[in-house]
């Protein structure tokens, strides 16, 4: 079932804090269940977020909101 959500309702209620910079790890050393969102330039010395990524996903909740754009009402896919 589709739900109509006003854009004014999106934002503060769904605010998620940015993960700490202390969690960042080199991409080559990131393991399973770690956010793989690359911070800065994607090169051979890339650093990823490193925050916990639940359910085996590739990104933490904060970066998942950046990577995926929420569906807008009336938009065809």
Can you offer a commentary on this structure?
This protein is largely without helices or strands. It has a domain at 23-67. The chain is 9% helix and 8% strand. The chain is built from one helix and three strands, in the order E-E-E-H. A three-stranded antiparallel β-sheet has the order 1-3-2, with no helix packed on it. A hairpin with a 7-residue loop joins strand 2 (38-39) and strand 3 (47-48). The longest helix has 7 residues, at 61-67.
Short description:
The chain has one helix at residues 61-67; strands at residues 25-26, 38-39, 47-48. The chain has 77 residues and is largely without helices or strands.
- Briefly note the structural class of the backbone: little secondary structure
Compressed to H and E, one letter per element, the order equals: EEEH
User: What percentage of the residues does DSSP assign to strands (E)?
Assistant: 5-15%
Number of strands: 3
Low-confidence stretches: 1-10
Percent of residues in helical segments? Answer: under 10%
- Shape descriptor reads elongated
Strand order of the largest sheet: 1-3-2
Mean pLDDT: 78
Largest sheet: 3 strands, antiparallel
Distance between the termini: 16 Å
**Overall radius of gyration:** 15 Å
Total DSSP helices: 1
């Amino acid at each position: 079932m589709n739900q109509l959500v006003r854009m004014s309702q999106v934002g503060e209620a769904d605010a998620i804090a940015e993960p700490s910079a202390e969690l960042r790890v080199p991409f080559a050393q990131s393991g399973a269940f770690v956010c793989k969102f690359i911070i800065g330039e994607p090169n051979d010395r890339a650093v990823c977020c490193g925050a916990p990524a639940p359910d085996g996903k590739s990104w933490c909740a904060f970066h998942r909101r950046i990577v995926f754009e929420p569906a807008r009402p009336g938009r065809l896919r």
